[in-house]
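Dear support,

Our group has been running a series of protein-ligand predictions, and this particular one with flavin-adenine dinucleotide is the one our PI (initials K.S.) wants archived with full inputs and outputs. We had some confusion internally about which version of the output was final, so please treat the block below as the authoritative record. The input we submitted was:
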Amino acid sequence: MVTIVVGAGVIGTAIAYDLQKSGRQVVLLDRDSPGRGASFGNMASIAVTEFMPASRPAVWKQIPGWMLDPEGPVRVRPSYMPRLVPWFLRFIAASRPSTLRSLEAQGAALCQRSLSDTLALLRETGLQDQISQQGCLSLYTDDAEFRADRDHIEILERFGIAHEILTGEQARDLEPELSPSIGKAVRFPDNRSMRDPYKLVLALAQRFTALGGRIETGEVTGFARDSAMRQVILKDGRRLPADEVVICAGAFSRPLAQILGEPIPLETERGYHTQIMSPGISMQHSIIWPARAFMVTPTAGGIRVGGTVEMAGLKAAPDYRRAKITVARAKTALPKLQAQDCTEWMGHRPALPDTVPILSASAKTRGLYYATGHGHLGLTYAATTAHLMGALIRGETPAVDLHPYRINRF
Ligand SMILES: Cc1cc2nc3c(=O)[nH]c(=O)nc-3n(C[C@H](O)[C@H](O)[C@H](O)COP(=O)(O)OP(=O)(O)OC[C@H]3O[C@@H](n4cnc5c(N)ncnc54)[C@H](O)[C@@H]3O)c2cc1C
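Confirmed final output from the archive:
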């Protein structure tokens, strides 16, 4: 029994490890070396408080204003707008109150497990030192700004997700570099961060091969199947025999699902980071500022600043002005932050219009599975996804009912 996992990002690598551990013969297949996609440069946060659907009114009501602002947190490239319409209509459909309630529950069901699943995976693989002990601070200028984010906190209260409301002084006691303009904050103790998300993928891939797993390089362009999976076909003409295939190609899963006859409304929400090697300050917590839509994370290689959503498809060249805007915003929270010695990066978040990932067996082909669409939370969900998909593929009962995450829900 050979299982081919397509895509060696954090999702595919964690699943490959889980399956190999349980005795399957697993091939982890990628056109690149492991961890070079979105999993390379994300903001490193196990963001258990961020599961709420992007389609909730508090967010989408701001979208028209953001889109008119060239420096706003969401940017749609004008040439890409027509292609985005079907996705956007589904996004709006996901904003109905009853739909929102179930999407929140589906995100919460994953986030309520994600820190403990991540810690268990890190312990098992000897990678405990990869995660910080500190949480995240969410920043607000004043009470009015805090009230505008109130629906977020109410959802956390409803699902029992840990958080603590702080004054500006209490936030500065925890992070002395924060600007005096911060009047209020919320501490999320469980939003821990990884030292380096890329190194995490490499370490998991190394644990996978140590168990006998095989890493193969090649670009998937097709599949041979009847009622069951038979082969994975590569661009260079090779055909790899497979009894089971798991599609984990991140934002690039859409064309593969299309070939497999199961189209999905997957888009890329492009995001940017700036890695500052000599920031001139040090921090213990990650910070987010909801009204200014940026995040700052202390990582092994300095301070990482990121955020922003750019809808421009998979092929357009990066627009690094987006990264520079985010750094300028970060300086409003961290006035002493220096950004001379830095690198910039762009990655593709795999985004479904209802914000909930696909964790599913195929509705059409035996031996075919999908784990994609993790959006802003692929690192957060990786260990839990591996746990759930491993159980599903082995024929066990997953710890979370996976019906809401099925491929044919659209
Ligand atoms: C700026 C930014 C910040 C983020 N911050 C966070 C955060 O703090 N916390 C969090 O949880 N998440 C965060 N995310 C989201 C997270 O990075 C993604 O959800 C996650 O990395 C997706 O993982 P993946 O394995 O599905 O995809 P990827 O890491 O993109 O991996 C997909 C792999 O598939 C391969 N592939 C694609 N097509 C083919 C093909 N045809 N044949 C062979 N191989 C193929 C690619 O080469 C790639 O290696 C952020 C993302 C961005 C861009």
